[in-house]
Amino acid sequence: MVLYAESSAVLAWLLDEPRALEAIRALEGATSVVTSELTRIECSRAIHRAASQGALDARQVASLLRHLDVATSQWDRMELRDRVADRASAPFPAEPVRALDAIHLASALVARDAWKDLMILTFDERVRRNAEALGFAVAPA
Predict the structure, then answer these.
(1) Distance between CA atoms of 46 and 68, rounded to whole angstroms?
(2) What distance in Å separates the CA atoms of residue 17 and residue 107, rounded to the nearest whole number?
(3) Burial tier of 120 (Cβ tally within 10 Å: 0-12, 13-18, 19+)
(4) Which pLDDT value is given to residue 141?
(5) What are the boundaries of each domain within the chain?
(6) Which residues touch 122 (CB under 8 Å, ≥6 apart)?
(7) What is the pTM of this model?
(8) CATH number for the 2-139 domain, one of 3.30.70.2390, 3.40.50.1010, 3.40.50.300, 3.10.28.10?
C-alpha cells in the first residue's frame, strides 16, 4: 500500500501525541510513503511554534527536525506546482476547506495518477471527509 502522509498524522508521530502509535503503524506498514512539500513546512513550523511557547527545548527541536528530515528524505514528495495549485483552488466535495488542507488533498489527487492504490493517513476530520468523498481509502480506519 502506498500512503499519503498528511501533516496531522506526521505531527502526531513526531510530537508523540496520543494517536502517535496509529501513525507509526500506518507508516511502517506502507510499501511507500508520499507527502507534500507542505508537510515538511507545516511540521517544521509546528515544532518551532512549540519551542517558542516553551513546550520544547533546543535539544528536542533539533532531534525532531532531524527525525522529520530523515523521514521526508525517504518519502516521495509532491512539489507545489501548477497541477496541485490549480486543483487546490477548485471546489471540494465537503466545503469549507482551508487552503493548506486543499493543498494536501490536491497533492494526493495528483499523486493518485501515479499510485492508483494511494491511501491517505490523516487525523484531520475535514481532510478525512473530503478524501473519502474523493474515493480515497483513509487511515486509520
Answers:
(1) 12
(2) 25
(3) buried
(4) 86
(5) 2-139
(6) 6, 8, 9, 104, 128, 131, 138, 139
(7) 0.95
(8) 3.40.50.1010
